[in-house]
UniProtKB/TrEMBL annotation:
One of its GO terms (molecular function) is transmembrane transporter activity. The keyword Cell membrane applies. Keywords: Cell membrane, Membrane, Transmembrane, Transmembrane helix. The chain crosses the membrane at residues 21-39, 45-64, 106-128, 140-159, 171-191, 211-231, 251-276, 296-320, 347-365, 371-391, 412-434, 440-460. InterPro entries: AA/rel_permease1 (IPR002293), APC_superfamily (IPR050367). It comes from the Archaea. PANTHER family: AMINO ACID TRANSPORTER-RELATED (PTHR42770), INNER MEMBRANE TRANSPORT PROTEIN YBAT (PTHR42770:SF11). It is found in: Cell membrane. GO terms for cellular component: plasma membrane. It is a multi-pass membrane protein. This is Dimethylamine permease. The lineage of its organism: Archaea, Methanobacteriati, Methanobacteriota, Stenosarchaea group, Methanomicrobia.
Amino acid sequence: MNDENGEAGGLQRTIDWRQGLAIALGVPVLILPSIGYFANYVWAFAIIIWALSVFQGFMQNFAYGELATMFPKASGLPGYAQSVFTSRNANTRYDRSKLLGGFSAWSYWFAWNPVLAIFSILIGSYLKGLIPAFADVPDLAMYLTSGAIVFLFLILVNYRGLSGGATLGYILAVLSLAPLIVISLAPFVTGHIEISNITGAWLPTDWSWDIQHILILLGLMAMAQWSACAWETAAIYGPEYKQPKSDVPKALFICGSICLVTFILVQAACTGTLGIEGILAEPFSPMLPLAQITLGPIGGALAILMLIAAMILIIQTAFLGASRAMYSMAEEGNLPSFFGKMNTHGTPVNAMIVIALLNMGFIFLGTPAAILAASAIGYVCANGISLLAYVKAKIDPRFSKLERPFKAPGGWRYVALFFGLFNLPLCLIGLVYLNSLEVGWASTIVGFVVLTLYLPLWFYSQNENQTALEIDTSPQGESMV
């Protein structure tokens, strides 16, 4: 039975747009691992790429905002694609539309899932640099310990529902975003920034607009999208907002505005203060020398503490998003029912525990580079399919009578179609090419292998669904009812 607070036994409507925004505010932190990566390829032009990517996020999220009000019980991108690509014939066991919707959700899950392992490794690295007593601890042991503590902590915090996670989000947003903005604004106030470091180094001297460099640019746009468009995660909690029709658009576009400022500001501050050579000297942590230059000796320690708080926030964002994606797939019959089991507080604990264990396994790889590149393949696929789902929802008569309190501007299906095709195939091709230059073919192979693993899980779930249906419709099942 449904009520205004949600569906009994399912996700509970316990948060408003402010709490959803607080959880999603971990997204600006995703720029931190990419500052040096982008500067290495395109120098100061990285500022433009971040701006274009956030703009792309706005264009895509107009469509996602409308989908959120059309399907208020759907969990963000995974739920939208599954709601649109549904079977017309409920008796069809292996329906291709259902498979496509589920694959989009699986791609989205794979895009967010490795964030837990990546940032747990970084937390362990920063703790080793911050606390001398940890200096002699083996790297793998440090990474596994930090991951286990963070994962267990977040499971306990979120065990009673999203409201606990949102409260933690409020706290960590202040601890992470405020110092991030302060450190980035500091060189403008202190006069340490040199605009010539930006205007005099827009692109590498050997840059040319040939097919190879265009593919690199497309690959960087795909990598940037993984970070700068990820604020659509605010929509994944659609079934848990008290007023999804108004809360989802508010959370989405306020978070997007914050991302637009922070992504441009952080890259510009690092480039203008350190120069390209300074960034490449500290490609994984350029915020550290930036803080030391502008804030003095205490700046380094402040930056490390800020980064640790920020990484816990983004781990929570990924943890909650990935668990909701698995729950959504199980609810739609696209994953085994085990992943749809809820505790008494409406939290998909089974999915959270499985994700934590998987990421503990990822940590054994020791380096996040290949996993990060592979997960971006999943994100490109998820966005491409979800945008095509929006186009289908606009033209399919089955959805014409659905209420749409929030509507994208007229003709937006053509905008969604453009960005859907921009993701698939253009960004995907560019990303595969960029991965081949950066880490060889390993990340591409890992990405496609993980995406392909969805197939056996999906076929198993379809057989499970059919078995349950046969039991329900059998004389014995009817007598039990």
